[in-house]
User: What shape does this take?
Amino acid sequence: MEILATNELTVQFWVKMTSITLLELFLLFMLIISVIEIVKKPEIPVALLMTVFYTLTALNGYGLHYHYSNGVTVQHKVKITDFNEVYKNGYEIIGQEGEIYTIQKKR
Assistant: This one.
């Protein structure tokens, strides 16, 4: 396996992180509003809405943690002579252009 080029998808990572963080802040704001509303008027529709916002906030928080812990995706353009070496080192093939393959670490 001969590495020809390396590409770090840093911009893609930070755009994803920023959008998930903004969505998380919006969901937290909506959750706080629904908690205030349920304290003022305890009704079932508001409680259901609060449950939905709480669930979405938790799921989005998990997504934020997942993307942050995985970090920036690094892709390599390589010429492969032994495919077993690629798989043994924990890479997966994600593209091919003639004899040049694009690989990245499995997550």
Notes: The mean pLDDT is 88. Residues 2-105 form one domain. The chain has one domain: 2-105.
